[in-house]
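Justification of resources, computational component.

The compute hours requested in this renewal are based largely on the per-chain cost of generating structure records like the one below. Each record pairs the submitted sequence with a full structure-token output. That output is archived, and it is also reused by downstream analysis tasks.
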Amino acid sequence: MVDKRHEITLKQLIIFGISAQIGLGILTLPSNLAKKTGHDGWLVVVAAGCIMLLLAIFIALLINRYPNNSILDINVLLYGKYFGMFFNFIFICYILFTTSLSSRFFAEMIKISVLNQTPLIVISLFIFIPTIYQVTKGLKVICRFASLLILAHITLILTFLLIIRDTRVTYLMPIAKSGIITIFKNMPYAFFSFLGIELITIFYPNVTNKSNPVKWVTIESIYIAIFYIIVVAFTTALFGENKLKMIIFPMYSVERAIKVPILERLDIFFIAFWFPIMAGSVRSYFFSSYYCIAKLFKIRREKLLIAIVFIVVMIIGRIPKNLEDIFTYMNYDALLGAANILFIAFSFFISLIRRR
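The structure output for this chain reads:
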């Protein structure tokens, strides 16, 4: 029996997935791709988006075959008790690692852009206060709040119109100059920004209207890809690949470059809109970590488990010594996440062979 606090609609689940995917990775994606592929970064996003769309469809087909089972149940069903539990353990470790890395990166972003003198531990504590509150209220509340963040996505894209006259299409030319092989070889650097689609496999049993998940997962994947393509292409056309390579947070730099007569500093509004989006990504993974552990080990003491997960996340988040270490771990996490997504998609074909 699903807890009423965790019952959601299919649309809310898709919004939850979008909230998990759009957040932290996009802040550094344009500059990371510029360092690897020059002005062809947006083509890397197109290629990665197409692959993720294909994998997302297979994931949707899998959960459609097992509408009342989460990925934790499906793994045991397809691979047996011991192998299934092993895969579940790897999956939970991955989610915990992503939560820790995301929260640390979020704290670093706040420290660099706003609170230079504030200790990271203090910033991290304030990040998790609203997160823990919403986690105690349940998945339904988290999804409702995530719905509001879609408006923030649209608002941020609209702010690009204020500075579009300063962009140069020539900065994007010639197309595919870096070469097709280079573009495909650097797709892993874009994968971190696409992580999050795997979380829908945890909560699909909580959906009250299980109808045509393939359609909605496809819409989610296309939405994410288009958003990233716009951001990467726009920042490249605005700054050029040479300057873009030297900028740590291109999205933040875009907003600082916008001059509006009435609004002296538009970057303050960017912070007001984007920080909740980044927190939404952390929140999605934190809740997923807590929910999976509670389900797998049948833990009923919610507050104690939330406290334990919080402490573990804080400890793991302290492992990177600086921002450069965080970027290195993010690359590893992208590969680990892509492997998990690939494994879940592969499980669909295993389910066809085993007919379970």
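The domain at 4-354 is CATH 1.20.1740.10 (Amino acid/polyamine transporter I). The radius of gyration is 20 Å.
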